[in-house]
Amino acid sequence: MTLRPAPLKGRYRGRRNLGLSPLLLRPLCALALWGICALGARLLPAQVVSRFLLPISRILSTPIKWISGIFPFALLELLLLGLPLAALGLFLWDKINRKRPPSQSLDEEEGGFWELVSTAMTVLFVMLALFQLTLGFGYHGLTLKQQLDYPDTPVNADTIAETARLLADRAADLRGAADYEERTVSRYGRQFRAAYRALSETHPVYRGYAARPKAAMLSTAMSHLGVGGVYSPFTCEALINTDSTAPALPFTIAHEMSHSLLIAREEEANFSGFLACLSCDDAAIQYSGYFMGLLYTCSAYHQADPEGYRTFYRALDEGVRSDLVAYSEHVSQYEGWINDLQSDINDTFLKSNGQTAGVDSYGLMVNLLVAWTSLQ
Question: How far is it, in rounded angstroms, from Cα 250 to Cα 185?
Answer without folding.
Answer: 8
